[in-house]
Design brief:
With 411 residues, the chain is of the alpha/beta class. Helices cover 52% and strands 12% of the residues. The protein has an eight-stranded mixed barrel, surrounded by six helices.
């Protein structure tokens, strides 16, 4: 893999806000220049194939599918046939002219088992002739006037395609698109906090918040066992999580007491935080907030773990993981992050990182957020300060993906 390239992901969720796919995006270093966009596309295919071959499908995507942008030249080339047709959705970009050659290629790839999508669909889109071989149509919300959206949806609904709303940035947009009949949604609306003043947290989450308070205050392990015993669901979920493939240790833990005592306070804090995100509707571990927070925390932990300045006891890495996980807690609980920092009695260092992205942990959090957004201009300078290049970043990203998919895999 080139040292100037890496593949990132953005989640795609269904109507129940469960992660069912990822858009796989290609980013190149600011120092790398390609002759044209199609050369970038071919490089992206090579990176994707190499990533899948080296790590395996399940580590990159879990049980989800991967959406992948293609230009006309890449779409017509044989290189694309190296991608796993049962796992990748080929997105035909909006600037691809639907020539007879493109139409024939659509028919050919569709017959060969590839799933095709049309990216950035607009009013009177010239690619309408490609719909017979298309499974997904992505509608870019900012590019379609609200007054035209209903008619666009109605027209596409008459065909046998799934509708995906792109760049959904608020919960209101999500609900509006859901009512219009969209099947899939892409954007970070699920990570935007909706502050609910005075709203009560449900019982399970309240119990987990109290546990986090006790853990950060250094409570004895014996006092932390009872809440898990009193709430059987929490206890079973704790055992299920710590025994998953997402955890490096090979020890199987069969009782709450064994889990609490074996983990210790720092590790227990990690799993309690994960459980906090898992206590949503039907406790679905595929929730976008959980996967986003767990990936962010794990990536931050791995970056610190790789550094030569790591404390021998792993404290720095654990703090990095906690900051990453808690950085989306305001969206989860609908409460200002400042309030949560105070309630959990977090250290000043962690508090400043979460509220203002200050200090070393704050800079690390900003870098992780920029990586998720694919914002090279923001995260590349930070890579250099940590003696990382794009190849090293891809390696850490892959490890984080594998860990998260192990975490949410069915027991």
């Amino acid at each position: 893999m080139s040292q100037g390239t890496f593949v990132g992901r953005q989640p795609i969720v269904d109507r129940e806000q469960r992660v069912v796919a990822y858009e796989l995006f290609f980013r190149s270093s600011a120092e790398v220049r390609f002759a044209d966009f199609d050369e970038v596309g071919r490089a992206a295919v090579r990176v994707m194939v190499n990533t899948f071959a080296a790590l395996g499908m399940d580590a990159v995507l879990g049980e989800a599918r991967g959406f992948f942008n293609v230009t006309s030249e890449v779409f017509l080339s044989e290189s694309i046939e190296a991608l796993p047709r049962d796992r990748v959705v080929l997105e035909i970009l909006e600037n691809v002219e639907p020539t007879r050659e493109i139409q024939a290629r659509c028919k050919e790839l569709h017959a060969a088992g590839f799933t095709l999508a049309l990216d950035d669909w607009v009013v009177d889109d010239p690619r309408e002739c490609l719909l017979p071989w298309t499974s997904v149509v992505k509608v870019d919300l900012p590019a379609v006037a609200r007054k035209d959206l209903r008619s666009v949806v109605r027209k596409l609904r008459s065909t046998n395609v799934q509708l995906l709303a792109e760049k959904v940035e608020t919960a209101e947009e999500y609900e509006a698109c859901r009512k219009l009949g969209f099947d899939l949604f892409q954007g970070y609306f699920f990570a935007r906090p909706i502050v609910l003043e005075g709203a009560e947290v449900d019982a399970s989450k309240a119990t987990l918040l109290r546990l986090l308070q006790q853990i950060t205050a250094g409570a004895e392990a014996a006092t932390l066992v009872e809440p898990f015993k009193q709430d059987a669901k929490l206890g079973l979920n704790l055992l299920r999580l710590v025994n998953t493939a997402g955890r490096a240790a090979r020890v199987r833990l069969d009782t709450i007491e064994a889990a609490v005592r074996y983990l210790g306070l720092q590790q227990l804090g990690r799993w309690v935080t994960i459980l906090l995100y898992a206590q949503g509707r039907s406790s679905d571990l595929r929730s976008p907030l959980l996967t986003a927070a767990a990936h962010r925390g794990r990536l931050m932990e791995l970056v610190v773990d790789r550094a030569t300045t790591l404390c021998d006891d792993g404290t720095d890495a654990e703090r990095a993981f906690l900051v990453g996980m808690l950085s989306l807690a305001d969206a989860l609980l609908g409460r200002p992050i400042e309030n949560l920092v105070s309630e959990l009695r977090l250290s000043d260092e962690i508090g400043r990182a979460l509220t203002h992205h200050e200090g070393e942990l704050g800079r690390l959090l900003s870098m992780a957020v920029a990586i998720e957004a694919g914002d090279v201009s923001k995260f590349e300078p930070e890579l250099a300060t940590r003696d990382l290049d794009f190849a090293a970043l891809q390696e850490l990203e892959n490890q984080a993906y594998a860990w998260v998919h192990g975490l949410i895999a069915p027991a």
